Amino acid sequence: MNIRQESSVDGTVGSPTLEALYHDLDMFINELNLSSDQRRSSDQVNQNGGYEDETQGYSPVLENYTRFSTTECIEQPKKPTIIEEKPHQTTPPVSPSFLRVNNKEDYIFTTRTSSLNRTISSSSGRSLNNRIPPSPKIIFSNPTSPLAFEMPNVLEDEDAFPNYALLSFISSNFITAVRSLNERRRIFCTAEYPLSFNGEEAIDLLRSFLPDSLATPIYLKIARALMKTHPPLIAPIPYSEKSVRKNKLYNSTNEIYTLLTTDQEIQGVYTPLTRCYSISCLPGQPECYSPLCPNRLLQQPDNIQQKLMAPSVGSSVSHDTSISRAWSASVSKEILMSLPKNEISRQEAIHELIYTEEDYVRDLRLLDELYVKELLNAQCIEESRRQEFCDKVFNNYKDILNIHKELCDDLKDHQAYCQSISAIGSVNQVGDIFLRHVNRFQDAYLRYGPQVVLAEYEAKREAETNMLFQNFIREKEKRAESRRLPFRHFIILPVTRLQRYSLLLDAVLKKTPEDNPDKVHIATCIDIIKGVATKVDEATIETKNTLRIYEINQRIRFKPGEPHELDLLKPGRKLIKEGVLTRKSHLVVETIELRVFLFDHLLLMTKEKKAPNKADDVEYVVSKRPIPMELLHIQEATEGFSIGLRTMNSTATSTYASSSLLSPTNGSFANASSSSPFGSNSHPILIQHLGRHGADYMLYAESAASRVEWKEKVVEAKAMLEMSNMDKRVFEIRSLSDTTFGGSSASSLHNHGKVTCTVPFTSSTNIRMIAVGTQQGIWMGIEGDTNTIKLVLSISDVTQIAVLEDHHILLILADKTLYAYALDPLVPKDSRRTTVDKPHQKVAQHITFFHAGVCNGRTIVVAMKKRGVDSNFKVLEPVCGDLRDPNNSKKFFAKSGLFSKMPSWFKSYMEFYIGTESYSLHFLKARLVVVCARGFEIINLEALSMNRNLPDPSHPDFAFVQQKGQELRPLGMFRCKENYLLCYDAFVFMVNTHGSFVREAPLIEWEGVPQAVAFYYPYVIGFDPRFIEIRHVETGELVQVLAGIHMRCLQFINNAIAPVIHGCMAHPFKPDFQYVFQLVGTFEPPL
Q: How far apart are CA 414 and CA 429, in angstroms?
């Protein structure tokens, strides 16, 4: 039926305008009912396209029209189809003002004019397309309007025309966007909150699926609305304190939020995004007559909204100081009025304990995410040392993080439980929770706390030398999550937190009632934490000492061409003392200040100078050669170490200085200290560097107390070194004579001349005895008992003695004459009886030295007589048998007449000579070794023509020996397993049985200048006048040093089981006496 006719029947008065409108509507309805034949004739317009009606809106213009159903289109391939309306759903027909036809080539829009003549052209379509945006994201407010949408080829595609006002649509798309975001990037809290994002990211995510023409404040309001839904979709994480307190979302990168997962679908309508009921209202068009038109939001200037919503300067920091964190601020006034004041204080203390624990865990997580993990993946530090650097700086922070994360979770869970069961929400107790975790503190904090000072040093040093690392730290410090806190804050945080626990818990304890279990639990926790803190402080003292060593090592400078290996960075190294000592120049004109460092392994003297690169820094230029602790000797301080006493000697130096015998430097320094040119206020310290590379240094302390302290610290350092190397105390000195033999300055009662030699033997009663030779005679006594030593033979200038054990003969070399005495008659048996008859014989004259022993199974005595440059040797063999046997003694002691002689005890076995100067003689199993200027002459007594000299001077392997020339002195040769040990006063090396150099064995260079050597496998012992030097022959290591004055070797007997080594030195505490000792091995001799 014609619409106009229907209107006429109703009696409606028509105007030209209304008539034209009716005509347009009739034409539009007719177009919708075109037959399929008519639609086929319109290929140009309708190809691959069709009209569609997706609107559910209502137009008041068509309120008198009846609804209709669209005619089903004829299905033909590649032909336009008219979209059917959904069954059981009636909508007003779409206005034909703008209809889009979907074409393969372009989009053509048809328009209607007031003349009712419709023309279809591509040009008109393009002009309209330029004027009307096709995207539904822009034209969204009224999808019922035909201007709002393009017409797709699908039926009722809801995704193409979403209803943005539905919260279900907004929430589902926002969740998808957040998940996609966290797959692409990680932030510091991603591990704990895998669906986290900051406020700025929330705005960007909403803009990605909502119309992008909205002002930023609109998106912010939408995001905030998602926090108020039921259930809420967005919630701030505990780190974002301002958002938590105000329960509001901020457009800031500093505030972090997370999605709250729930199975319940969020439903509702956000009214500002609803469609305008005016069908002709579109964004960008003139004002709508609706008073609450949603499209007006699109027309509001964005800069005004952003100005209103702009955050303040303080909003960049999550901690909002204007918001009270007190417990009383979170509860109502009525609750506060109902509680006692003491309970309010207790709840405040508990609340502070809990929220500060949250802060602590948050910062530990920031340290983990922001610094550690990013640094491990950063390129600012070389990959080869990146992990090691992180271990030094961050140590075991993860252990602490895990402990406190569990503690914090338990505290928060208990707090939530208390709030759920009580309207007041007060926490009943926390001590039991702490008690479950506090026992884990010690291991974690004792490992982390003391290392903090070293961690700061490592980071500071790296930043000074590595600009990339410096920039990395600065960039992290500027990050909002760091809250503008320096890197150091996160490093030292565990230490400061540990110290604060006792204060926080004590505040709770003071307000806790006596009947509350927390009274006991918290007290126990405080005691445990204080104990841990005390141990951390004690350990920190050691690490601060280590830090100072690192700083010294960094500032150490060497003179050109004089580098030294200080080994300051060895783990466990300690600085015992540092300070300023002065010394005088050689001309005694000026005072020079020295910065002296006493470490646990050496003493270092330096000159302090200003650093050229830093105005407030200094450098330490090494002034003197570093003194190893083993070779450091302080007069009146360390003398007792050689005899096992680790206390400082306080003996006056008067007698010390007056004895030229006991002072290797003839008392020059001692005299200087007693008559110092610097007046009575000077406080000298004589520091001695033992060895060929050492020297004596007279330094001055600022006070007597300072001098005593320096000496005490040196004694402490040497004692620490010995205690830490107990396995290196392989020899000890045992006294043979303490105060029997005085020195040259001793009284006549004790002045028996210089001790020159000793020999042990066994008496007829099987008592271990010792014979001592001096410049005035022979003394005998029980070994180790000073009081039993008696003078048994007055004979001048004794230089060497020996005992033939099988024959009980004592050989004495006195005044270059070799005597043989019957041993038993000399042994003092009773102080009241003395043996007048002392059988003896003169064996040889003009003898320089002799040696007695067993060679090739034969007991012999070899005496050397010097003739010019040659050394003549006479080999004697005893024929008297055992003189302890009465038959032998009767035969060889008796004289046949008044002027007759006793039968000779020895017979001449053979003689040989060496055409060079000889120094000593050693016995091998089947050979003799003559130590001479050429080296070591090997003598075969059975075939003298087969003698050979070691080492071979022509062999290139021994060129280092020849380079020393005449200044090199051989000392001894010993059998060492399958090789031979050749000892000189400069070095020791090995040769094999063929005389070839053993390359596998070390070349041992002596620290001192030994005058004699001894061998006690696996150690070779050198006797320097100022110390005994003990070396391991297989490694060359300096094992032990025994310091003393005027050290001498008196006797060395190379027994197969336990060699006998006797020595003498000035008494450590009684310098007027000579101290005779035996060097005894404390180790288990290897087989």
A: 9
Shared domain check, 354 and 396: yes
> Same domain for 540 and 438?
yes
941/924 Cα distance (integer angstroms)? 12
* 1014 touches 1059 (CB < 8 A): yes
Per-residue b/e over 674-711, b at no fewer than 16 CB within 10 Å?
A: eebeeeeebbbbbbbbbbeebeebbbbbeeeebbbebb
| Residue 653 belongs to some domain of the structure | no
Tell me whether residue 71 is in a domain.
Answer: no
Closest CA to 690 of 1041, 986, 1015, 1031: 1041
To the nearest 10 degrees (0 to 180), the angle between helices 341-366 and 487-510 is 160
Q: Is residue 515 part of a domain?
A: yes
Q: What is the CATH number of the domain that holds 188?
A: 1.10.10
Confidence tier at 636 by pLDDT (50, 70, 90): confident
What's the CATH code of the domain at 384?
A: 1.20.900.10
Please tell me the distance from the alpha carbon of residue 1066 to that of residue 656, in angstroms, as a whole number: 10
CATH assignment at residue 861: 2.130.10.10
CB distance 460 to 412 below 8 Å: no
DSSP designation for 351: H
Same domain assignment for residues 461 and 506: yes
Per-residue pLDDT for 60 more than 80?
Answer: no
**Pick from 83, 309, 113: which is nearest to 215 by CA?**
309
Q: Using alpha carbons only, how large is the chain's radius of gyration in Å?
A: 53
CA dist list (Å): 1 to 9, 514, 533: 12, 96, 98
pLDDT surpasses 90 at 69: no
Answer yes or no: pTM beyond 0.70.
no
Domain housing 258:
167-273
Q: What is the pLDDT of residues 315-340, one digit of tens each?
A: 334 444 446 778 888 888 888 889 99
Across all residues in the chain, what is the average pLDDT?
A: 80
The total domain count for the chain is: 4
pLDDT of residue 991: 95
- Mean pLDDT for 978-1002 is 94
The single residue listed with the structure tokens 């783990």 is 571
Whole-angstrom distance between the N-terminal and C-terminal Cα of the chain? 131
What the block records as the tokens of 268 is: 């509702």
Judge residue 845's burial from the number of C-beta atoms within 10 Å of its C-beta, 0-12 exposed, 13-18 middle, 19 or more buried. Answer: exposed
Return the closest-CA partner of residue 252 out of 180, 205, 317: 317
pLDDT digits (tens, 9 = 90+) for 773-786: 999 999 999 998 88
Q: Are strands 987-991 and 1004-1005 parallel, antiparallel or unpaired?
A: antiparallel
DSSP bridge pairs for 932: 918, 935
CB contact burial 882-915 (16+ within 10 A = b; e otherwise): ebeeeebbeebbeeeeeeeeeeebbeeeeebebe
Q: Are residues 631 and 547 in the same domain?
A: no
Summarised one tens digit per residue, pLDDT across range 520-547 is 999 999 999 999 999 999 999 999 999 9
* 873 backbone dihedrals φ, ψ, rounded to 5°: -115, 135
**Shared domain check, 584 and 517:** no
Domain membership of residue 691 (yes or no) is yes
Both structure tokens of 780: 């005998």
